[in-house]
Amino acid sequence: MTETLGFIGLGKLGMPVAEKLMEGGYALRVYNRTAEKAAGLVAKGAVAVQTPVDAVVHGGTVVTVLADDRALLEVANEEFCEALGTGLHVSMSTVSPVTSRTLSERHAQFGGRFVAAPVFGRPEAAAAKKLWICASGAAASKEAAKPLFDAMGQGVFDFGEDVGAANVVKLAGNFLLTAAIEAMAEASAMAEKNGVPRADLLNMFTSTIFNCPIYVNYGKAIVNARVEPAGFPIPLILKDMHLVQKTASDARVPMPMLNLLIDRYLTMLAKGLDRYDAVGLALGVAEDAGLHW
Amino acid sequence: MTETLGFIGLGKLGMPVAEKLMEGGYALRVYNRTAEKAAGLVAKGAVAVQTPVDAVVHGGTVVTVLADDRALLEVANEEFCEALGTGLHVSMSTVSPVTSRTLSERHAQFGGRFVAAPVFGRPEAAAAKKLWICASGAAASKEAAKPLFDAMGQGVFDFGEDVGAANVVKLAGNFLLTAAIEAMAEASAMAEKNGVPRADLLNMFTSTIFNCPIYVNYGKAIVNARVEPAGFPIPLILKDMHLVQKTASDARVPMPMLNLLIDRYLTMLAKGLDRYDAVGLALGVAEDAGLHW
Fold first, then answer.
1. Does this complex have an ipTM over 0.95?
2. What is the pTM of this model?
3. Closest to A257 (Cβ–Cβ): which among B186, B196, B213?
4. Are A175 and B208 in contact (CB under 8 A)?
């Protein structure tokens, strides 16, 4: 029997995830704020609905992939939680751990279950079923979500029963990738102004001691000064960095490197570069050194 | 016919490199400031000499692996360059590009050749013949050094004819690895104070999007709070960071992330932690967050 899932949020990440779920044999009831985006999925058999609540199957499973905490909290309101009832909400958005804990309690009022399942991987990785999934929540809920995870990613890491834990990990990862971009950018600017092309520098490192996806992919983007089209637009990465800052600050953790990155992105926005990809901060580093990539 | 090489500097890196060269069939004339360190090599057939100049074979090849610019400039003085004559000096120390250019000119006065060949790899990597070598200098000189490189490492990257170029790359790499330590440490402190053990966090990242030697090895050291014995003691990494700073500053390149790392290491030294490994800065990050690893 084909299981029907609710699916909410067809952004850069949501769209390929929805496609993988359909390829995995699930029927989808999809909602997206901009309704036209659902057309491609509808052509493949998905049902488009008019409100988030309409996407929910009572006692079933709903997946949300939304832009930020506010959007997620608005979508998963009391009415939504009541409509889902004893079902399962798999939340893939990058949000604060506090938001996951709040939603978990909201669902619990109606006997519902909540799993935080943020992922790592650019949209291309999602399309290739190469996402890495971080999951947290009650063991039985994660077990129930496992077939979905298998349909959309290459592996799941379990961070325990606190639903906020996977969000903490996701935030940490986005901070790490941003720090890697700044580090490569500073090293590249230093090298280029000393006669070593950044391509030579980064090609060496990303084929030896830094031969991992983050350095390889963002290193290539820095070498090619490829800041558009944005797979990860600056307003989104800055939103994440502010979540890291709040999460760290609430727990009394100074993160000087993070603060530097936030200032860098604020400068990009101050210059009207909202459309740039996260890797765009490398251009800021270069510009500060008098270079024009 | 067995070729005899001069070899100067039996520190943490120099010792395993000298051993690889002997295993590769070279006869060595070794000099080390602390003479006793040569005993093991002498037992295997090396000849220990009393001064750097005594290690040099006129018209032959000499390898230097010294702690800093001053030591290298003192060893390779005019008398040394004259003794080497038209021979080849392979310099593996982490020094500034300016020092390499100075020495290249000093050798040229006597018809001698100079190749900068700093390497990446901890002492264990050197012992396993897993070093990555960055080479710069005249093409013919690098060609002459190639058999030595083959005997000590797993690969050579050629950074062109400017002898300083390989030093720029080495400095950039040491900055990148230090930045990676700080980033992992800040992420770990944030995660731990939010209930996620740093082992869970770092094990996930170093087996997925950061699965490269620098993150894997230093990540493991952070998880285990393993700051001794120091493969890369703080005074040495701080020396390197100051070289990066000078090289960047001379070329007018602001590196805010670098400045933060320098302050972090200065604090470690201010607290008398000279004996700690470079990864020790992670303890400083944790301590600032009220954690005790």
1. yes
2. 0.96
3. B186
4. no
